[in-house]
Write a structure and sequence with these properties.
The protein has 238 residues and is an alpha/beta fold. It is built from 7 helices and 6 strands; from the N terminus they run βααβαβαβααββα.
């Protein structure tokens, strides 16, 4: 399909990058090989989303629950994260600013320093913001924001009855970022797994069966956008 025939991409797309382990298993490879391939796919898809005019791409890379995996897998994910961050520093994605959402305090000082460096590579001509969700959980994000709000009330900076939806939105990692329009999950699981709970209240979901994240191609992003374009978003209206 020629670029001009494609529907306009939504402003903000979220992707739950799932299925790396099954991708590796199918090939009799260790699960870590699936994560390595998944990280490559992320670079390709981020560039393609930028070229399609997406303004914000939020990808779920590591959840607050993923620490419960065997130590060997968590260690290999941390090694891969270090490598991904170093690669980003050496070869940043053109015209993409990257930021990380989630609780960064759980990471090693080395990883936190790399994260800071990548976040500081600001391209003034960036066309897209890539938000990588790391040690992210929607519930954890809400708990942290409630605590900060309670603190402001306790310190007399905010009145309890002035708390509204905006107060909460502004305390989330995604403050100032519009809510996701479309959330894509490959791998055949039909759940959110704690991704952007508050922000996804009116997001459109596209679940893609028979497709594992490492195999996700630009044409799959096109297909999800195509499906989104045919949806009727009512936001409770008629
Ligand atoms: C997603 O792939 C990556 C992370 C959660 C880190 P999985 O590792 O969940 O792959 P499956 O779901 O086991 O196939
Ligand atoms: C969600 O995938 C988290 C990421 C893709 C990072 P999981 O594989 O952890 O989710 P569940 O366990 O299938 O719900
Ligand atoms: Mg999974």
């Amino acid at each position: 399909m020629a670029q001009q025939e494609k529907p306009q991409a939504p402003q903000h797309i979220g992707i739950i990058m799932d299925g790396n382990g099954r991708w590796a298993k199918k090939r009799m490879l260790p699960r870590s090989a699936g994560h390595v391939q998944g990280a490559k796919t992320l670079r390709t898809i981020a560039e393609y989303a930028r070229d399609r005019g997406v303004k914000y791409l939020t990808v779920y890379a590591f959840s607050t629950e993923n620490w419960s995996r065997p130590k060997e897998e968590v260690d290999s994910l941390m090694d891969l994260l270090r490598k991904y961050l170093r690669d980003m520093l050496k070869e940043p994605t053109n015209h993409v600013n990257t930021r990380f959402i989630g609780d960064k305090t759980a990471f090693s000082p080395e990883i936190r320093e790399l994260i800071d460096k990548v976040e500081n590579l600001i391209d003034p001509e960036a066309k897209m913001v890539l938000q990588v969700a790391l040690n992210y959980g929607g519930r954890d994000e809400l708990v942290k924001s409630v605590r900060r709000i309670a603190q402001r009330v306790q310190q007399g900076q905010l009145s309890w009855d002035a708390i509204d939806e905006q107060t909460i939105s502004e305390e989330l990692y995604t403050a100032s970022v519009p809510d996701p329009d479309l959330i894509i999950r490959p791998s055949g699981e039909y759940r959110t797994s704690n991704f952007l709970l508050w922000q996804s209240a009116y997001s459109e979901y596209v679940f893609m069966d028979g497709l594992l994240w490492p195999d996700f191609k630009p044409s799959d992003l096109d297909a999800a956008i195509e499906e989104y374009a045919g949806r009727n978003r009512r936001f409770g209206g008629i």
